[in-house]
Amino acid sequence: MTRPLLEYSHVEVSYNGLAVVHDVSFAVMPGEVVCVVGESGSGKSTLVRAAMGQLGPRGCVTRGDIWYDGASIPDLPERDLRRLCGSHFGLVFQDSLSALTPIRRIGDQVFESMRAHSAITRVECDRLAVQMLARLGLEDPERVLASYPFELSGGMGQRVGIAIALLGGPRVLFADEPTSALDVIAQAQVVELLASVNRELGTTIVLVTHNMGVVRSVANHVLVLRRGRVVEFGDAAQVLEAPREPYTQELLDATPRLATS
Q1: What are the per-10-residue average pLDDT scores of the chain (261 residues)?
Q2: Residues 6+ positions from 52 with CB-CB distance below 8 Å
Q3: How many CB atoms are closer than 10 A to CB 112?
Q4: Of 58, 192, 247, 249, which has fewest CB within 10 angstroms of its CB?
Q5: In this structure, are residues 20 and 14 in contact, taking their beta carbons and an 8 Å threshold?
Q6: 73 DSSP assignment
Q7: SS3 string of 12-32?
Q8: Rounded distance, CA 12 to CA 61, Å?
Q9: What integer pLDDT is reported at residue 258 of this predicted model?
């Protein structure tokens, strides 16, 4: 029987000694897409940052474990955690353009990211980056690498962010609200892009979103959070079509729907 690739076991996360995530448990199997949903402030992004070791100096996992491939992430030395991030874990931010340095060209930042985890040359990095950007649907990837972040649209910026995250060959891609800063057309493109990454590369994805339409498009399983606690976790079809909890139904009812004649 296949064991989980990533597993949260009774996880509590605190900031300044105050618990904001309480007793969260769920498992992510290899190759699947798990969507984490809930209202703002429910702890969705905190769960992702806990796995990446990016809770900052005031945050920490105060109880439980986050298991990755048999290792407890909160117990790892910083050196080992750094080795995981980039090569085993990739992260796509809500607004990838804002996560980039505005005065440095895209190609320079891609190279810096890859050099942090391998002894790659600039020529090889550029070759792989061009291939990845083209695969992600960006025309003229060489021009993109020579551009500054402010010269790219939001949709292009998200593709660059996804490319940087994928170039390290991660087994798990964390995507933290990757569509919320985009227009409707760009949102659809990024969702299809994530679906193709999962389908073609077999990348396991943990996707944080408040958009139930996105969930319907890509999720295998859905985790519903409210005030830092698990409300519901299960197969996407079951959660979306026959939710067990009233709060989940409230989230579904809040999703705008087009009227049909």
Answers
A1: 89 95 96 94 92 90 92 88 84 86 95 88 95 88 95 89 88 88 79 87 91 89 96 95 93 67 41
A2: 85, 89, 91, 174
A3: 13
A4: 58
A5: yes
A6: G
A7: EEEECCEEEEEEEEEEECCCC
A8: 6
A9: 43
